[in-house]
Design goal:
homodimer; about 450 residues; alpha/beta; Aminopeptidase; 16 strands; about 35% helix; elongated; binds zinc ion
Chain lengths: ~450, ~450
């Protein structure tokens, strides 16, 4: 901590010089990899609402204190917790063989003896939506899709609806169960889990995903069976259950602002993960990147004018429950949230900076930030960010502007929500590039007095 | 079938012209991919000795007949059949979390309630071999290793001993169970199964593999626990069982020789697979490549002087049982087996041609074959082949010379014996390159009168 870094002569030029210093220090090696290694090794999977997620909160409090942060706090909230059971499946006829499948979050159960039924296949969700209820009532629906890799991950919105909406649609049509092609872009036999949502008043039916290779196999068998005029019969056993009301929580630490401590620049990642992997890429990486970035600023002896708030969110995967709890608990404060930027899209390189709609002075500062990010291979994009990350959606809807450092998501949906989301998939040097970008962004915004809000409009402008 | 292809004026030059024609036809598209697609889709996994393998034999007989081969026969044999049960595991303390594991073939069972024990880790099989029995008695042994990718797959011999010999060693030292790092080169969470062998008189203990990511996790936790002075406790539940004596069989078809029908040029692949995947790469590909090559010769209207024998071997994975049954049943005929070449190393490109020790005239013909293979990117290697493929080991030991078309095995142990061994991993065009090479090899040897045996020595000479 040198004298020049003191906050009382922070002209914009000085702030930029400090940001460049933080950036270059991050590239020399940050704390990020050690943080995600610790979380994934010592806690492992941490499904929202379970004792595993509670251990993750304990880990986070202890780790943040060990990293030198005081005033670490947990904001708890209640939630309804779903837990996985057994999950097996098979093609019964005409070509008997096992299927590897995994229940979607909120899936109903088959009972321990499982169910067997005729498969009714659809190539797309739109095809299924048009099908009359009598064509699928009492049967097992299969819905495919053709999701492919995209660098920005944008096709997840469209194709992900097979998972998000397919099961409720199947329930409404009276289906016995639904199998979907995983929302994934790999050719590995791990199915991808993820949340689905049933409609109010619906009793959830069993809902599971099969891997892409198994979906290909189902579709080949469906075609052969159709040639032979025989039906395809499948069996599945899923025994998930609702464990009742339990506690989750957000873990929060502030790097307190020196001049405008009530103005908050919010960042973080989510602490919960799906239960199949150890949540390294989703979202141990985000926890690690943002924690390391805030630590880097503090370790440099820098105190921003505004408060930088790191939130390690609970229960993101199961419906942004931590985000909603925070927005409720901090409803009076939201107007003071200057910007938000969450890291929750893996562990690959950041390649662009997007913002949502911002003020003219916000746009000017973003351009200065982009200059500092350019040496990291990051280009500024148009004002089209729809959120600053999933956990910031409620705050963004309530008017908080967002800046988003977009990671390369080309391979993100290879691992997403599978057992394969483990530490070995993370490159420490790439994490450091992320830390460098977050440190620049957070320091530049938090050490400014720029108002990013467009006057007279909400953030959705 | 043109007139020029008739066998009665087959000078060497004419035979070479025909071989080149077969090669080029294969590259235009062979039957191989359709064969492996059919096997893996309509039969799927086919563990030796089970009804699934019996369905594979039925499939093979029907498929070979449909491809136009008559005189398809099955040579059955009896075997002791082991089948998989439940398999789950976990680190119990100090950092509780699930492990993904799979039983090794012949593993003992834990009983349905599983066992829990202290883990005793070893970095290598040699370290474990040196450990005194009292250090592991009643405990759960873990053995790691550092197998890396090789193009020729040669390191499988050395590192594979962790799987082949570790469990017998652990049983001899009184261990309660053994976990090994998978004999695999991938960073996916599918553990690799494969056979292990207990010593005569030993009662098999539970023996399982964990994936490389899980092995890394175990090793990280072992290191952390050692720092803290606490033991690592793991639990596992394995319920495999011996299903008793059942039938397996080899499926055989001959392309009968016109001049020397008793002289046999043997090829093929193995019909059984491990039960986790659909056995596309191991060894549906070998079945498909060699079947397609023989079909290509026959469909060209070519009849070789010698008989080409295609054997689709049963029960290879569990100890070369089909190979041994064949060698016993055909003991009187082995002297008439001219050469053997099995395809059982995946579905990637062939890059070299090796032979075992051969006669001078065999070496001369091999050089002619190598010229024909050169346009396929295949180079001849030294006389160091130790077998013509696993199922030809008994015949090779009994004196049959071997030629081996070596596939690129760089990625073979990524998929080997995992659920990920499925059809999507196979490129039809690459299969055709394999078919081209086998067609050349088989035609050149079977349409010659060259004796590959070195006089006065066995094949191991
Ligand atoms: Zn996430
Ligand atoms: Zn997620
Ligand atoms: Zn094999
Ligand atoms: Zn094998």
């Amino acid at each position: 901590a040198d004298d020049q870094a003191a906050p009382d002569r922070t002209s914009l030029a000085e702030t930029e010089r400090q940001a460049a210093l933080l950036r270059d220090r991050a590239l020399e090696g940050s704390a990020a990899y050690a943080i995600v290694e610790s979380l994934t090794t010592e806690v492992g999977p941490r499904l929202a609402g379970t004792p595993d997620e509670a251990r993750a909160r304990d880990w986070a409090v202890a780790k943040l204190r060990a990293l030198g942060f005081d005033d670490v706090r947990v904001e708890p909230f209640e939630m309804t917790t779903w837990v996985r059971g057994l999950e097996t499946g098979a093609i019964v006829s005409p070509y008997p063989q096992p299927l590897l499948l995994t229940a979607l979050g909120n899936s109903g159960a088959t009972g321990p003896d499982g169910i067997t039924g005729t498969l009714v296949p659809f190539a797309t969700l739109a095809d299924f939506a048009e099908a009359p209820a009598e064509s699928v009532a009492g049967k097992i629906v299969y819905v495919g899709h053709a999701m492919d890799k995209t660098q920005d991950g944008s096709s997840y919105g469209f194709f992900g609806n097979v998972r998000r909406r397919g099961p409720a649609m199947a329930t409404a049509k009276g289906a016995a169960a639904i199998l979907i092609r995983s929302i994934g872009t790999d050719s590995r036999r791990f199915p991808h889990t993820g949340g689905t949502r049933f409609n109010d008043g619906q009793t959830p039916i069993p809902a599971a995903a099969v891997s892409n290779p198994d979906a290909d196999q189902i579709e080949r068998i469906v075609a052969l069976a159709a040639d032979g005029g025989t039906p395809v019969t499948v069996s599945l056993t899923l025994t998930p259950r609702v464990a009742g009301t339990t506690l989750s929580g957000n873990v929060i630490v502030d790097l307190k602002g020196s001049e405008r401590p009530d103005e908050i620049v919010i960042t973080g990642g989510h602490l919960d993960s799906w239960d199949l992997g150890t949540g390294a890429v989703d979202d141990g990486a985000g926890v690690a990147i943002t924690t390391a970035a805030v630590k880097l600023i503090r370790d440099a002896g820098l105190t921003p004018k505004r408060t930088i708030r790191l939130v390690l969110w609970g229960a993101e995967e199961v419906g942004l429950l931590g985000a909603q709890a925070y927005a409720r608990a901090h409803a009076d404060e939201i107007a003071n949230h200057v910007t938000g930027s969450e890291s929750d899209f893996g562990a690959e390189r950041i390649w662009k900076l997007h913002t949502g709609p911002v003020s003219d002075e916000g746009r000017a500062l973003t351009a200065r930030i982009a200059r500092l990010l350019a040496p990291l291979g990051i280009a500024p994009g148009p004002e089209n960010a729809t959120s600053g990350g999933p956990d910031l959606i409620p705050l963004n809807r309530a008017g908080m502007p967002v800046l988003r450092l977009v990671q390369d998501g080309t391979d993100y949906f290879d691992l997403h929500h599978t057992p394969d989301d483990t530490l070995d998939k993370i490159d420490p040097a790439v994490l450091d590039q992320n830390v460098a970008a977050y440190a620049v962004l957070l320091w530049m915004v938090a050490n400014s007095d720029v108002d990013f809000r467009r006057t007279g409009t909400g953030a959705d402008g």
